[in-house]
Automatic annotation (TrEMBL):
This is Sigma-70 family RNA polymerase sigma factor. Belongs to the sigma-70 factor family. ECF subfamily. Residues 116-167 form the RNA polymerase sigma factor 70 region 4 type domain. The keyword Acyltransferase does not apply. It comes from Actinomycetospora aeridis. NCBIfam families: sigma70-ECF. The keyword Transmembrane does not apply. Keywords: DNA-binding, Sigma factor, Transcription, Transcription regulation.
Length: 178
Protein backbone atom coordinates (compact mmCIF):
# COMPACT_ATOMS: atom_id res chain seq x y z
CA UNK A 1 0.00 0.00 0.00
CA UNK A 2 2.86 2.30 -0.79
CA UNK A 3 3.08 5.25 -3.13
CA UNK A 4 4.75 2.95 -5.67
CA UNK A 5 1.66 0.70 -5.59
CA UNK A 6 -0.52 3.70 -6.36
CA UNK A 7 1.65 4.82 -9.27
CA UNK A 8 1.81 1.27 -10.62
CA UNK A 9 -1.98 0.99 -10.41
CA UNK A 10 -2.40 4.27 -12.31
CA UNK A 11 0.05 3.24 -15.02
CA UNK A 12 -1.66 -0.13 -15.45
CA UNK A 13 -5.19 1.26 -15.41
CA UNK A 14 -4.78 4.68 -17.04
CA UNK A 15 -6.39 3.76 -20.40
CA UNK A 16 -9.32 2.11 -18.61
CA UNK A 17 -9.81 5.11 -16.28
CA UNK A 18 -9.74 7.54 -19.22
CA UNK A 19 -12.21 5.40 -21.19
CA UNK A 20 -14.57 5.18 -18.22
CA UNK A 21 -14.34 8.94 -17.63
CA UNK A 22 -15.17 9.70 -21.28
CA UNK A 23 -18.08 7.25 -21.29
CA UNK A 24 -19.59 8.64 -18.10
CA UNK A 25 -19.05 12.23 -19.23
CA UNK A 26 -21.06 11.57 -22.39
CA UNK A 27 -23.87 9.93 -20.42
CA UNK A 28 -24.03 12.63 -17.75
CA UNK A 29 -23.20 15.70 -19.88
CA UNK A 30 -20.14 16.22 -17.72
CA UNK A 31 -16.47 16.89 -18.25
CA UNK A 32 -14.26 13.81 -18.49
CA UNK A 33 -11.25 15.71 -17.14
CA UNK A 34 -13.15 16.57 -13.97
CA UNK A 35 -14.29 12.97 -13.52
CA UNK A 36 -10.80 11.61 -14.13
CA UNK A 37 -8.98 14.05 -11.85
CA UNK A 38 -11.60 13.75 -9.10
CA UNK A 39 -11.31 9.96 -9.19
CA UNK A 40 -7.50 10.01 -9.07
CA UNK A 41 -7.57 12.53 -6.20
CA UNK A 42 -10.00 10.40 -4.20
CA UNK A 43 -8.05 7.23 -4.97
CA UNK A 44 -4.84 8.85 -3.78
CA UNK A 45 -6.44 10.12 -0.59
CA UNK A 46 -8.17 6.82 0.22
CA UNK A 47 -5.44 4.50 -1.11
CA UNK A 48 -4.25 3.20 2.28
CA UNK A 49 -7.81 2.36 3.35
CA UNK A 50 -8.79 0.25 0.32
CA UNK A 51 -8.94 -3.32 1.56
CA UNK A 52 -7.97 -5.92 0.53
CA UNK A 53 -5.19 -4.25 -1.45
CA UNK A 54 -5.72 -6.18 -4.69
CA UNK A 55 -6.17 -4.66 -8.16
CA UNK A 56 -9.76 -5.93 -8.56
CA UNK A 57 -10.94 -4.22 -5.36
CA UNK A 58 -9.08 -1.02 -6.22
CA UNK A 59 -10.57 -1.03 -9.71
CA UNK A 60 -14.07 -1.53 -8.27
CA UNK A 61 -13.42 1.32 -5.83
CA UNK A 62 -12.27 3.59 -8.68
CA UNK A 63 -15.40 2.71 -10.67
CA UNK A 64 -17.66 3.53 -7.72
CA UNK A 65 -15.90 6.84 -7.10
CA UNK A 66 -16.19 7.88 -10.75
CA UNK A 67 -19.87 6.86 -10.96
CA UNK A 68 -20.63 8.87 -7.84
CA UNK A 69 -18.79 11.91 -9.20
CA UNK A 70 -20.76 11.68 -12.46
CA UNK A 71 -24.06 11.43 -10.57
CA UNK A 72 -23.18 14.36 -8.34
CA UNK A 73 -22.21 16.46 -11.36
CA UNK A 74 -25.48 15.65 -13.09
CA UNK A 75 -27.52 16.54 -9.99
CA UNK A 76 -25.72 19.87 -9.66
CA UNK A 77 -26.23 20.66 -13.33
CA UNK A 78 -29.92 19.92 -13.04
CA UNK A 79 -30.26 21.99 -9.87
CA UNK A 80 -28.70 24.97 -11.63
CA UNK A 81 -31.10 24.64 -14.55
CA UNK A 82 -28.36 24.01 -17.08
CA UNK A 83 -30.71 21.55 -18.74
CA UNK A 84 -32.35 24.09 -21.05
CA UNK A 85 -34.32 21.64 -23.15
CA UNK A 86 -36.84 21.01 -20.35
CA UNK A 87 -37.27 24.68 -19.48
CA UNK A 88 -37.44 26.03 -23.03
CA UNK A 89 -40.95 24.69 -23.59
CA UNK A 90 -42.18 26.47 -20.44
CA UNK A 91 -40.77 29.77 -21.71
CA UNK A 92 -42.41 29.36 -25.08
CA UNK A 93 -45.76 28.32 -23.61
CA UNK A 94 -45.84 31.56 -21.61
CA UNK A 95 -44.89 33.73 -24.56
CA UNK A 96 -47.28 32.13 -27.07
CA UNK A 97 -50.35 30.62 -25.39
CA UNK A 98 -51.56 27.90 -27.74
CA UNK A 99 -55.12 27.64 -26.40
CA UNK A 100 -56.51 30.65 -28.23
CA UNK A 101 -54.73 29.98 -31.56
CA UNK A 102 -54.48 26.19 -31.63
CA UNK A 103 -56.60 25.74 -34.79
CA UNK A 104 -54.85 28.41 -36.85
CA UNK A 105 -52.21 26.92 -39.23
CA UNK A 106 -50.39 30.26 -39.41
CA UNK A 107 -49.97 30.14 -35.63
CA UNK A 108 -48.02 26.89 -35.92
CA UNK A 109 -45.55 28.57 -38.28
CA UNK A 110 -45.20 31.67 -36.10
CA UNK A 111 -44.78 29.51 -32.99
CA UNK A 112 -42.03 27.44 -34.62
CA UNK A 113 -40.18 30.58 -35.73
CA UNK A 114 -40.50 32.04 -32.24
CA UNK A 115 -39.22 28.80 -30.68
CA UNK A 116 -36.14 28.90 -32.87
CA UNK A 117 -35.53 32.58 -32.17
CA UNK A 118 -35.84 32.16 -28.40
CA UNK A 119 -33.72 29.00 -28.43
CA UNK A 120 -30.94 30.65 -30.45
CA UNK A 121 -30.91 33.77 -28.29
CA UNK A 122 -30.81 31.86 -25.02
CA UNK A 123 -28.12 29.48 -26.28
CA UNK A 124 -25.89 32.46 -27.09
CA UNK A 125 -25.92 33.74 -23.50
CA UNK A 126 -23.06 32.79 -21.19
CA UNK A 127 -23.82 29.82 -18.93
CA UNK A 128 -24.56 31.75 -15.74
CA UNK A 129 -26.77 34.33 -17.43
CA UNK A 130 -28.57 31.56 -19.32
CA UNK A 131 -29.33 29.75 -16.05
CA UNK A 132 -30.48 32.96 -14.35
CA UNK A 133 -32.85 33.82 -17.20
CA UNK A 134 -34.33 30.34 -17.37
CA UNK A 135 -35.15 30.47 -13.66
CA UNK A 136 -36.38 34.08 -13.82
CA UNK A 137 -38.97 33.35 -16.52
CA UNK A 138 -40.42 30.67 -14.25
CA UNK A 139 -41.45 33.39 -11.82
CA UNK A 140 -38.79 33.10 -9.13
CA UNK A 141 -37.54 36.20 -7.31
CA UNK A 142 -33.91 37.35 -7.31
CA UNK A 143 -33.28 36.06 -3.76
CA UNK A 144 -34.74 32.67 -4.70
CA UNK A 145 -32.55 32.51 -7.81
CA UNK A 146 -29.52 33.48 -5.73
CA UNK A 147 -30.23 30.63 -3.32
CA UNK A 148 -30.71 28.12 -6.15
CA UNK A 149 -27.48 29.06 -7.91
CA UNK A 150 -25.41 29.67 -4.80
CA UNK A 151 -24.61 33.31 -5.53
CA UNK A 152 -25.43 36.70 -4.11
CA UNK A 153 -28.58 38.66 -4.94
CA UNK A 154 -26.44 41.46 -6.42
CA UNK A 155 -24.77 38.91 -8.72
CA UNK A 156 -28.19 37.71 -9.87
CA UNK A 157 -29.32 41.29 -10.48
CA UNK A 158 -26.19 42.00 -12.52
CA UNK A 159 -26.67 38.75 -14.45
CA UNK A 160 -30.29 39.65 -15.27
CA UNK A 161 -29.30 43.10 -16.46
CA UNK A 162 -26.45 41.73 -18.60
CA UNK A 163 -28.65 39.00 -20.06
CA UNK A 164 -31.48 41.41 -20.91
CA UNK A 165 -29.03 43.77 -22.57
CA UNK A 166 -27.51 40.93 -24.61
CA UNK A 167 -30.93 39.55 -25.59
CA UNK A 168 -32.02 43.05 -26.67
CA UNK A 169 -28.84 43.41 -28.73
CA UNK A 170 -29.41 40.01 -30.31
CA UNK A 171 -33.01 40.89 -31.14
CA UNK A 172 -32.04 44.27 -32.62
CA UNK A 173 -29.22 42.63 -34.58
CA UNK A 174 -31.67 40.08 -36.00
CA UNK A 175 -34.04 42.90 -36.99
CA UNK A 176 -31.28 44.69 -38.89
CA UNK A 177 -30.48 41.58 -40.93
CA UNK A 178 -34.07 41.12 -42.16
Amino acid sequence: MSRDDFEEFLVDHLPWLEHLARSLAVQSDGDHHTLFSGTVTTLHRRWPTISPPVPEVRRAFATTVMLNLARTGRRRAHARCEDLADDLQDVLDRSLPAEQWADDPAFAIVRKESELEVYRAIRRLPETERAIMMILVQGFSWPEIAAMLGMGVKDVRSGVLRARRKLRELREGAGDDG
